[in-house]
Amino acid sequence: MMFSKRNKLPISNxxxxxxxxxxxxxxxxxxxxxNTFQALRHRNYRLYFWGQIVSLFGTWMQITAQGFLAFExxxxxxxxxxxxxxxxxxxxxxxxxxxxxxxxxxxxKLMLLTQGVMTVxxxxxxxxTFTGAIRPWHxxxxxxxFGAANAFDAPARQSIVVELVGREDLTNAIALNATMFNxxxxxxxxxxxxxxxxxxxxxxxxxxxxxxxxxxGALLAIRMREIPSKSARASAWKELKxxxxxxxxxxxxxxxxxxxxxxxxxxxxxxxxFPAWAVKVLGRDAxxxxxxxxxxxxxxxxxxxxxxxxxxxxxxxxxxxxxxxAFPIFMIxxxxxxxxxxxxxxxVGAGFSVILIFNLANALxxxxxxxxxxxxxxxxYSLTFFGFMPLGALWLGQTAELLGEPWAVVIAAxxxxxxxxxxLAGTPSIREQK
Length: 434
Description:
Elements lengths: L1 E2 L6 E2 L5 H12 L4 H4 L6 H32 L2 H28 L2 H24 L5 H24 L1 H5 L4 H30 L2 H20 L14 H13 L2 H17 L6 H8 L4 H24 L6 H21 L3 H29 L5 H30 L1 H22 L8
Antiparallel strand pairs: 1-2
Helix pairs in contact: 3-4, 3-8, 3-9, 4-6, 4-16, 5-6, 5-9, 6-16, 8-13, 8-15, 11-15, 11-16, 11-17, 12-13, 13-15, 14-15, 14-17, 15-16, 16-17
């Protein structure tokens, strides 16, 4: 093995598709159940993990029910895109400042505040729905509120993980985070679809409000090591510029952010049009909308478990490259399929592939970044992840309204493939990472 002088990153001497495939298959033989949950040895992370699982279950119920309610109220695919954009617009405005705040304040206390705000918003959504007062513009305003809270919550949530487990178990903890997120993404939408059909969307929103108490309780029980505060600080603007200069001055981090941008702008926004896909393309109902979300979540869950089971493995770059190529291919196949069981199977593959991108890019960035800048760099990561997703939902919804949902997905897949190929060709150190 040799090292890149410019980035001080380990570079493999192997190259070519055969080496890539062989390394991936060889690494997959190392899957071990013992490795899968090694981050749970840490008490603080155990509390965080179980609290987040319950909360995320409610979050996915809200996302699924909210999308179908919006489509029922408007019968517009374009409005689904606008709703997705509203959720992410505050991310674009506030996420970078949220990273500065995460580096300055106690991350646990910051998350207690943001989770409390989201609890109130979920309760308000349930109240408006139960009383029959809910209107499309209410959904837009509530989405903006959730997005604003998330703009400060996400950088703290991303950067607190290393404080809970340390650097050695960081990749495993990130994989377990994706496991809980996507485990909830399997169960939450499926339950939400059934509950929506049986009792209406209000109960989905009410259960989400209650679920936040699990993560709030976990955060209160966590005992964090006290970190001395700095006696003098630069202005927030100077700290923000320092974080931006650091992240975009590193070709390696810049390339990883490019892959996240492509996956968010062209791929993750696919879920925004699932309600319209269920009704207009597949000719089905709210339960099918839940199944589409759940199938994608099932693939993502499986992917996260595979990554966690590999332990402290040495083929992260190769798996990241594999996911970047496979994801748009699954999207194209999905656009061509009209049989529900096959659609669900293809979405499992798409979910598996996209988590290879998000998880491994996250782990590689956090392994490389300076601790002093972690909150700010992870706010840039979160902005790329959450910020481009609503932009993708907006353009995908409008394109689907004009050309039809299948053509919109094909165009998105081609865009994803072209950007990914360009990034990986321009930054070879990504796929060579151990």
